[in-house]
Design goal:
By secondary structure, this protein is an alpha+beta fold. The chain has one domain: Arc Repressor Mutant, subunit A (Orthogonal Bundle). The protein is built from six helices and three strands; from the N terminus they run ααβααββαα. The chain has a three-stranded antiparallel sheet with strand order 1-3-2. α2 crosses α5.
């Protein structure tokens, strides 16, 4: 038996499907996960930041931020250091290599976005952004 979905249910199903496709496709196109891209992007905006503040900005749990930062540190893209006055606080910053890499990732992200939104007019993009923002605000 085939179930008929309401338009509202179709919207949610389509958004769900897009969400499931975007992350892996983004990673294949850019060579980095969207979470790590967000971390590098935020670090590119500052000289240095407290790890827990970065975690809150990115909106991921503490284990995930630590895991991502350890890998980025192993890839020589970030450095971490303990606050000498409070050993519980860790500061994070981009390395020169990290700054170089994020520039390439930004180009790839732009290409990825252009591919997804090809054939959309500027007006349609603005409308879609407004609709999605309204949906997000309803949460």
């Amino acid at each position: 038996m085939t179930r008929v979905f309401s338009k509202e249910e179709q919207i949610i199903n389509l958004l769900n499907g897009l969400g499931n496709k975007i992350s892996p496709k983004f990673e294949r196109c850019t060579g980095i996960s969207s979470s790590r891209f967000e971390i590098l992007h935020e670090l590119d905006q500052v000289d240095e930041i407290n790890q827990s503040m970065l975690q809150k900005i990115i909106n991921i749990d503490s284990a995930a931020i630590t895991r991502h930062l350890k890998q980025l540190e192993a890839d020589s893209m970030v450095t971490r250091r303990k606050n000498p006055e409070d050993n519980r606080v860790t500061f994070v910053r981009l390395t020169d290599e990290g700054r170089k890499q994020i520039e390439g990732y930004k180009v790839e992200k732009t290409n990825f976005i252009n591919q997804i939104l090809q054939d959309f007019s500027d007006e349609e993009i603005h409308m879609l952004a407004d609709f999605l923002e309204r949906m997000q605000n309803n949460f």
